[in-house]
Amino acid sequence: MTTAIAATLANPRNARLLKTGWQLLLVLVASLYLVRQASDGPYGKDFTIFVTGAHILTSGQGADLYDLTTQAEVQRDLGGGVRYPGGVLPFNYPPYVAMLFTPLSWVPPDVAYYLWIAILWGVLLVLALSIRARYLRWQGGPMPPIYLLALFSFVPIYEALLMGQMSLVLLALWWWVFSAWRQQNWAQLGLAVGLAAFKPQMVILLCVALLVQKHWRALLYAALTQLALWGAAVLLAGPKILTSYIGMLQVSSTTTGSLGFSPEAMPNLRGLLTMTGLPPGLVLQLAMLSWLLSIAAVALVWRAPWPLPTRFGITALLAVILSPHLYIHDASLLILAVICAFLAHAERGATPNTHWLLVSFALLFAGIYSVIFSRASYAFVILSMVLFAILLLVSLLHTIAPKTASRPLPKPSPGEV
Fold first, then answer.
1. How would residue 403 be classed by pLDDT, with cut points 50, 70 and 90?
2. 153-202 confidence digits (pLDDT tens)
3. In whole angstroms, what is the distance from residue 6 CA to residue 312 CA?
């Protein structure tokens, strides 16, 4: 089997077809993104929640940041006439995230949206350059084109751009964590983990990994970063803000079908369980149990003597697939698991089979646009994401398998092309 795969990858014709397939997917994804960006306009986006939070802070109502009535009143003037189920799309991030967006509250909402999109594109381009530079430093040679083709062909990344979400910032911070970990720069690692804690259900997996590895200095820097961010928030909005935020997390975890909380659109295990028709309460309980199991799984992964890219890639994969609250833009983080799989294979002197990756990316693309154009259910998207996650996990685990002695490819017989 290994020889057959190697022969397939070594075939120049197959290599050209694979490269053409990636280029075609890139053109399709980017083209449809541009069409949607031009036609959808700036309103009706998740970005609304960030400017809502920012306007509440700048208007001196910081103590009511998580009050849904206050949010609804402010959002009516910012939404461009768009109305959301339940009357409001809640701001449910930590208060210091709203502080980040306060400069954008000084311009009209539509201008603020396009400014933020420009910033996100800058984050994505810096991320691409960083990946390229790190690969050159770590591997001592130029980075294969597949890295950038995969990065810029991944549909969840474009969904994050369209919605004006923070997912690309999270992706960049997790990449920073990985890079700092590899360089054993514990101060930078802790700072990056502390900044990434605006998605607490995901960052806890990184904290468990650091705890298992006994990187106390990194954990200290992460704690100090969070202390500084929350200290600034309390100074601005008062001590009530902490309990209000916890209350908002409870609302986020228990609400379904309203206020922007739709488990049937979550491309992970919770979405898969919702597809089965189980009661929402049972689905939530199973999703929370799976999340707790993911914490235990990460502890076991980081106890194993596996390569850093393998362990980190599995951690990112579990953070997405077993998160109790996640949407398609949040799945942008999975591209980091893909890059970790590439790096782990490269360190073994192997070339991963990327045919499955192209097919998985194409299925995700088809699923998302079937929802957008035909208003189909998210079932295809969820199933495609679960299949992608399984194949990605197999690829990551393959990097810890014992190396087998490679046999030379059979020579072609006379007359074979």
1. low
2. 999 999 999 999 999 999 999 999 999 999 999 999 999 999 999 999 99
3. 26
Write the pLDDT tens digit of every residue in 51-79. Answer: 999 999 999 999 999 999 999 999 988 88
| HEC per residue, the chain | CHHHHHHHHHCHHHHHHHHHHHHHHHHHHHHHHHHHHHHHCCCCCCHHHHHHHHHHHHCCCHHHCCCHHHHHHHHHCCCCCCCCCCCCCCCCCCHHHHHHCHHHHHCCHHHHHHHHHHHHHHHHHHHHHHHHHHHHHHHCCCCCCHHHHHHCCCHHHHHHHHHCCCHHHHHHHHHHHHHHHHHCCHHHHHHHHHHHHHCHHHHHHHHHHHHHHCCHHHHHHHHHHHHHHHHHHHHHHCCHHHHHHHHHHHHHHHCCCECCECHHHCCCHHHHHHHCCCCHHHHHHHHHHHHHHHHHHHHHHHHCCCCHHHHHHHHHHHHHHCCCCCCHHHHHHHHHHHHHHHHHHHHCCCCCCCHHHHHHHHHHHHHHHHHHHHCCCCHHHHHHHHHHHHHHHHHHHHCCCCCCCCCCCCCCCCCCC
Q: Considering just the CA atoms, what is the radius of gyration of the chain in Å? A: 22
Q: Measuring CA to CA, which residue among 223, 244, 133, 123 is closest to residue 174?
A: 123
CA contacts within 13 A on the Cβ side of 151: 25
Q: Check: CB of residue 400 under 8 Å from CB of residue 307.
A: yes
- Res 132: pLDDT: 96
Q: How far apart are CA 187 and CA 65, in angstroms?
A: 32
Angle at which helices 109-139 and 334-347 pack, to 10 degrees?
Answer: 10
Distance CA(364)–CA(87), nearest Å, equals 31
Distance CA 327, CA 378 (A): 11
Q: Is 230 exposed, middle or buried (0-12, 13-18, 19+ CB in 10 A)?
A: middle
